[in-house]
Structure formats: C-alpha cells, structure tokens
Write a structure and sequence with these properties.
The chain is α/β, with parallel strands linked by helices and 228 residues long. The chain has 7 helices and 8 strands. The chain has an 8-stranded parallel beta sheet, with helices on both faces. α5 links the parallel β5 and β6. α5 crosses α7. The radius of gyration is 16 Å and the shape is globular.
C-alpha cells in the first residue's frame, strides 16, 4: 500500500476529468499517480492507462497497489502481459459517471495521442469539467527549446483533434532534483506559456523539498527507471 503524500493546497482546483499528454520522458505517469493520491482526499478516483506506446512507464504498474484506497487503476485487458497489444475499449463516459475524478495517462507524442481522439465527444460533453494538460520538462533532452516543446504540443493536438487547455511544468532531474533545478526552468516555462497562449496551472516540486510556493505541487518519485 502506498502511503498518503503530504497535502499541499494549491490555487488550482481539480476538474472532474484530467488528461495528461506530453513528450516521452516528461513524467506523465508519475504525475498521474501523484495526482490520484491527492485527489483521493476529495472522492473516488479512476486512473485510466491509455499509454499504448511505452511499456516501461505505465499506470498499469500500479494496479492492485491501492487495496484500501479510493483509487482504481483501469488499463487495457492485456497490459503488462506478453500479449500487451494496443487494445483500447474504455467507456470513459461510464467511468466519469461512476467516479468523482478521472485521470487519463496518454501515450507520449502524437503517436500515443491518436488513441485519445476517439473520446473527443466525451470531453466535449464534459467541456466545463475537463482539463487537457500538456506536461513538459526542460530537462527531457539535451538543449531542447521552448519552441520545440510548443511544436510537440501542436503535433499532439493535431493527432487527437483535441486542444490542450493548460500547462504543467514538470522539469526535473530525477533523484538529483533540488529546488534550484525547478526554479531554473521558470524562464523556459514562461516562454512555453507565451508561445502556446496557455496558462501554467502548477509546477511539480519533489515532495521531500520543504521549499515551495502556492503554485507548486509536491510529487514523489513513484515511477522508477527500469534499472532502479
């Protein structure tokens, strides 16, 4: 059983449906599980694993690890088996009706975003209660620019025919992350916001760092690298 994370009130209020998109390696899955742990204090949470691209970092890995919680991990029927094939048949509308909050972890880049497009009508139905978040990290690759980061978001939007509504700055160096690491990404984050015209609703900060601001969301490293 994963322990509850330390609560921190943010200025941001959760919507009923939260969709996490972004480039490979931006930390979507780790953020999805952290968000679920925080949302649980407000009601039932369903985490939908819609990642049909990356077999190493998946919300499906956490299925069964919340036995006494109000969190349910919903994944494709063959996830994490030798028959792990891209079969997606989620009834998102039913899941939304039966849950207080739904977190959807989408596969990286435009390739993973195609699967999201089939649920566009559900998001339109819950338009005022849905947040499509583009998660990014300044440290995801060597010398990545804000312009390239914005371009990846446009490619994702074109693939799924759904517009992102907000940004989350998840710039980190894994276990080496300190508060200064996050602070040094602020200029980059502001540039991405300026280029896309989207607000940054919060930024992620390691939960063991005591320094934080009103717009910081504390995250634990729950998703580990294969060799850790």
């Amino acid at each position: 059983m994963l322990s509850k994370m330390e609560r921190l009130k943010m200025n941001y209020k959760y919507k009923k449906i939260t969709v996490l998109t972004g480039h490979y390696g931006c930390g979507k899955t780790n953020l999805a599980v952290n968000l679920a742990l925080d949302m649980e204090q407000y009601g039932k949470v369903s985490v939908v694993d819609m990642d049909i691209v990356n077999p190493y970092f998946r919300a499906a890995d956490f299925k069964g690890k919340f036995p006494e919680s109000n969190i349910e991990i919903i994944c494709p029927p063959y996830a994490n088996t030798n028959l792990d094939i891209p079969v997606l048949n989620f009834d998102i509308e039913r899941i939304a009706k039966e849950s207080d909050f739904v977190v959807i972890d989408v596969g990286g880049d435009d390739a993973g975003a195609y699967a999201l497009g089939r649920y566009r009508s559900v998001f339109e139905k819950y338009a005022g209660e849905t947040e499509i978040i583009y998660v990014f990290s300044m440290y995801r690759g060597p010398k990545i620019t804000a312009e390239e980061t914005a371009e990846i978001m446009y490619e994702i939007e074109n693939a799924c025919k759904i517009k992102c509504t907000a940004l989350v700055n998840n710039s980190n160096l894994g276990a080496e992350t300190v508060y200064r690491t996050v602070g040094e990404s602020e200029e980059f984050s502001c540039k991405v916001s300026e280029l896309t015209g989207l607000p940054q609703i919060f930024r992620c900060v390691p939960a063991d760092i005591k320094e934080n601001g009103n717009n910081d969301f504390p995250v634990r490293r729950l998703v580990r690298l294969p060799w850790e």
